[in-house]
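Design a sequence for this backbone.
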């Protein structure tokens, strides 16, 4: 991005009603647009073809698009003039023309389809072709002011495309070309010279000229030989390249030696446009040359061979009567008057070796629409201690490959106006139950029941874990309103899993175990994409309208739904182990064990953390019809229902009494009850 205005707001007010009777109302909507310029690459280019915004096709090859008043392409010539929109914003004479830079200007780019932000753009650029390796060498060396000679030796090597994506040294830019097209470069007397690997030898050295030495000293051996061990040579070479048959996306070709002790695999990244066959041939040639060039020779030659430079090839006669073609890798002048020349066996013969690669799978080019968002508001107990503030959880996903998040909007006026409420950047693992989950106990593993769920996004998966991992918190999910965990997830069809090995009623949701049905929502709580926006305390018990709009779509495209926040996040769990005992006078002594909503470890071995501002309970005494006859209060997990009160409430002391116990929250009042006849 080389220039942009700020977001420009357009306010539109619609009036309804009046005159003909009925209430008069006004609806105000806001849209946003921006003017901006985006740099593409060094120019000049031929044209810009297709443009994508957030992965969605924004402009086709014909230039058709709908989200901007105009899209102007500057090809990066040295004569291009400043853009009128930029000049109007910056002032006459203050806007650069960016000559030599290809760029695109968007005039009044509407942002409603992109979540009121500038999207991520991708451009398809048609460049001027007809380049050779030689022209690239000349351009690079000229730009760096490096003297060079004989780049024309590589002029026959056609270059279909070469991507230099960032600032780099000339050497690092030349290295991929050297690798792909098998030429060497050497600095000779202040100049950079280039030597194709298939060049002709510059000298022929007979055997009787080997072993040059100072007069009066012993003649050395003809040469010293070395050989690289098999284990140090490549077993496999993988060449990564840009493949025109795959719309210039990345492809890779490999060459592998079938019999070798080596386990060395070499990967070479070439940001060069190559056909699959050419890339395969390069991999084969690299592998062959590495193995052929494993033999090294060091010669001492007379000074008459001073013209031999690194990169040159020479023909050397050996004692076995054979003449070896070798490539000079290093030359050292030794006084008085001899040369030390280090060489490798030349493998230029394999440069003519071709190869045939498997046909490339051409990627499908399609417009990836964001699609609709499946969103859930989860009125659950807190899942972490940090969430112990007023709020609820949200989760969303999309079935389309173009889905990239959503914005949750809330309406305070019954669905007339909506304000942005929360962002759902990542998708959660969401689905629906195909059958009803049966009732089970929250007190031990449920091995009798199972449930089958179908996931919304085909890319999502579920996995099985061990029992210990479940006990440590893995595979927690909500189905309907029950939080549960599962040990086994068995794939029975695409995106369809059978879940069993269950722990039920987790996080105090045992009240939600009964009443499940096919079609219940399923949300994986430990799979990411779960968000918790804070909510005003006054929103408890209030019904609101919500919309979840996929990023890249309009708010009007999203279907509304309603939700009433119950304050479940703050409700104390139902007390456990409710008991009763009678004394000699007929009084009923009640006791129970409280539970905590917090996850703090039980460090003192005495009691779990309270999790409330103060400890308080209410105990309802019920008749056989469920009518509350009396409510007791207590600040401890005990209470007494005297015989005298039983007579007052029921007319006589009772042998069996129905009791319901609540822990009290200072924020939302009564928690979840435990009920029992004692």
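Sequence:
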């Amino acid at each position: 991005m080389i220039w942009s205005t700020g977001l420009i707001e357009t306010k539109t007010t619609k009036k309804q009603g009046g005159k003909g009777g009925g209430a008069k109302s006004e609806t105000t909507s806001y849209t946003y647009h921006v003017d901006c310029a985006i740099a593409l690459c060094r120019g000049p280019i031929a044209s810009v073809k297709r443009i994508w915004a957030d992965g969605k096709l924004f402009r086709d090859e014909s230039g058709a698009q709908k989200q901007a008043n105009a899209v102007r392409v500057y090809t990066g010539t040295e004569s291009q003039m400043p853009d009128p929109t930029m000049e109007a914003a910056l002032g006459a004479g203050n806007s650069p023309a960016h000559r030599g830079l290809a760029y695109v200007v968007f005039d009044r780019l509407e942002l409603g389809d992109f979540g009121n932000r500038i999207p991520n753009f991708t451009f398809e650029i048609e460049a001027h072709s007809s380049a050779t390796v030689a022209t690239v060498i000349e351009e690079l060396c000229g730009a760096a002011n490096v003297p060079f000679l004989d780049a024309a030796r590589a002029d026959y090597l056609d270059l279909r495309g070469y991507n230099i994506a960032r600032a780099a040294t000339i050497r690092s830019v030349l290295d991929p070309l050297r690798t792909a097209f098998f030429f060497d470069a050497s600095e000779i007397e202040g100049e950079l010279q280039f030597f194709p690997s298939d060049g002709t030898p510059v000298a022929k050295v007979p055997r009787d000229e080997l072993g040059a030495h100072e007069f009066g000293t012993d003649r050395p051996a003809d040469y010293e030989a070395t050989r690289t061990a098999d284990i140090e040579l490549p077993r496999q070479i993988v060449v990564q390249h840009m493949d025109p048959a795959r719309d210039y996306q990345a492809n890779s070709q490999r060459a592998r030696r079938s019999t070798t002790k080596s386990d060395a695999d070499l990967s070479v990244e070439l940001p060069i446009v190559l056909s699959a066959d050419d890339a395969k041939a390069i991999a084969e040639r690299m592998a062959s040359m590495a193995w052929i060039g494993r033999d090294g020779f060091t010669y001492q030659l007379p000074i008459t061979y001073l013209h031999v430079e690194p990169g040159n090839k020479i023909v050397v006669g050996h004692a076995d009567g054979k003449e070896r073609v070798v490539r000079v890798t290093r030359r050292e002048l030794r006084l008085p008057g001899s040369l030390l020349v280090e060489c490798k066996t030349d493998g230029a013969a394999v440069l003519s070796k071709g190869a045939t690669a498997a046909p490339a799978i051409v990627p499908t080019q399609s417009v990836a629409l964001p699609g609709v968002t499946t969103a859930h508001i989860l009125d659950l107990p807190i899942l972490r201690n940090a969430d112990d503030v007023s709020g609820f959880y949200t989760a969303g996903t999309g079935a389309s490959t173009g889905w990239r998040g959503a914005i949750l909007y809330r309406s305070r006026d019954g669905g007339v106006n909506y304000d942005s409420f929360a962002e759902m950047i990542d998708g959660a693992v969401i689905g629906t139950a195909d059958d009803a989950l049966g009732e089970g106990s929250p007190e031990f593993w449920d091995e009798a029941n199972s449930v089958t769920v179908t996931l919304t996004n085909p890319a999502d998966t579920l996995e099985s874990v061990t029992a210990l991992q479940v006990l440590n918190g893995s595979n927690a999910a909500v189905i309907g309103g029950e939080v549960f965990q599962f040990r086994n997830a068995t794939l029975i069809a695409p995106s369809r899993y059978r879940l069993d090995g269950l722990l039920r009623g987790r996080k105090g949701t045992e009240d939600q175990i009964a009443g499940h049905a096919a079609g219940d929502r399923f949300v994986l709580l430990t799979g990411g994409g779960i968000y918790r926006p804070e909510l005003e305390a006054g929103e408890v018990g209030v019904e609101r309208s919500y919309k979840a709009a996929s990023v890249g779509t309009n708010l009007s495209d999203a279907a509304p739904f309603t939700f009433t926040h119950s304050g479940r996040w703050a409700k104390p769990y139902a007390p456990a182990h409710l008991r009763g005992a009678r004394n000699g006078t007929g009084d009923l002594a009640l006791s129970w064990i409280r539970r905590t909503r917090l996850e703090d470890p039980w460090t003192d071995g005495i009691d779990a953390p309270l999790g409330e501002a103060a400890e308080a309970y209410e105990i309802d005494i019920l008749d056989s019809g469920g009518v509350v006859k009396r409510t007791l209060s207590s600040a401890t997990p005990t209470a007494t229902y005297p015989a005298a009160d039983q007579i007052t409430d029921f007319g006589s002391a009772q042998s069996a009494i129905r009791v319901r116990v609540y822990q009290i929250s200072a924020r939302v009042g009564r928690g979840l009850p435990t009920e029992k006849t004692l």
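Confidence is low (pLDDT under 50) at residues 14-24.
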